[in-house]
């Protein structure tokens, strides 16, 4: 069994393999899965776009087709970014595997296992939330129709498709076929952020584990009440531990920089797209006459987007916090009870630790919980603007 077949990373491997984005799968299988995923995603996007263009004079059609088109465009950017940066993802995974293999059994190995277990938990939660939202988003017309058929009521219910296409073709005639196509397409649409974002969560957790391991090493620096200021290097145990910490710190910084560059483009597009799509979805509830099942569908779509943005900002914030805590570990160490050369090394390390690691969107905006709240505020502002022009 390969290293990534273990319980910690097996789900990530499975999700990425579904899209053909697992760096270690065969090229034939990968290209085939990419082709299938893009076929369904692009065909759904094309149908929504045709519906929007042909009904451009109808406000309700504009509102109902623009929202899913914005989401689809974001997911396509994620997919393209993943395809273009597949070699970087492979480098990240190889780095993780190498770290596990070179870490000796002990407290540092336990730190890696704990953070990998957290990554697995976050992956399960994230996938469950998005797939549940996708189920309610896709199946509400069918579920509501079934309820009306079962319940003894004189009311009739005409299932409304999840996007406007009745002015282009006979939706009632092809309803089942369109629903099947939409269900499969939405599955692939959801699998893209789940696979790619869970890969991001995995890497963030590993980076946090690296910083936590460095903090542990710093806490283990030996000290003595009787300080020899200039001992021989061979006998200066604190010096060698600090050197090891610096090497680990450089690896953690290099890993974080590679991770940030891998996702910088897709995150930059995410910021503007999320604000507009959240605003459109919220305004659709007020500006368009909707049944209860349609309101549930729109709310499910908005919740999925919020979960998507929240998890990315939350995990990015964890990286900032863990890299910032390194300076506290240095401050709290007994630096005054070690040799002069060891103190100098700690001082240089502290100077670098004052600048925490960030995940940046387009090398401009820092992904964090502060930025998540800013996205919500701006989305509400656009929502107010859209409803005011009703």
UniProtKB/TrEMBL annotation:
Q: Superkingdom of this entry's organism?
A: Eukaryota
User: What's one GO-annotated cellular component?
Assistant: plasma membrane
One Pfam family of this chain: 7tm_6
GO biological process terms, semicolon-separated: signal transduction
Keyword terms, alphabetized: Membrane, Olfaction, Receptor, Sensory transduction, Transducer, Transmembrane, Transmembrane helix
Q: Which regions span the lipid bilayer?
A: 32-53, 59-80, 128-151, 174-196, 258-283, 295-314, 364-385
Q: Where in the cell is it found?
A: Cell membrane; Membrane
Q: How does it sit in the membrane?
A: Multi-pass membrane protein
Annotated GO molecular function terms are: odorant binding; olfactory receptor activity
What the entry lists under PANTHER family is as follows: ODORANT RECEPTOR (PTHR21137), ODORANT RECEPTOR 47A-RELATED (PTHR21137:SF43)
Q: Which family does it belong to?
A: Belongs to the insect chemoreceptor superfamily. Heteromeric odorant receptor channel (TC 1.A.69) family.
List the protein's name: Odorant receptor
What species does this protein belong to?
Nylanderia fulva
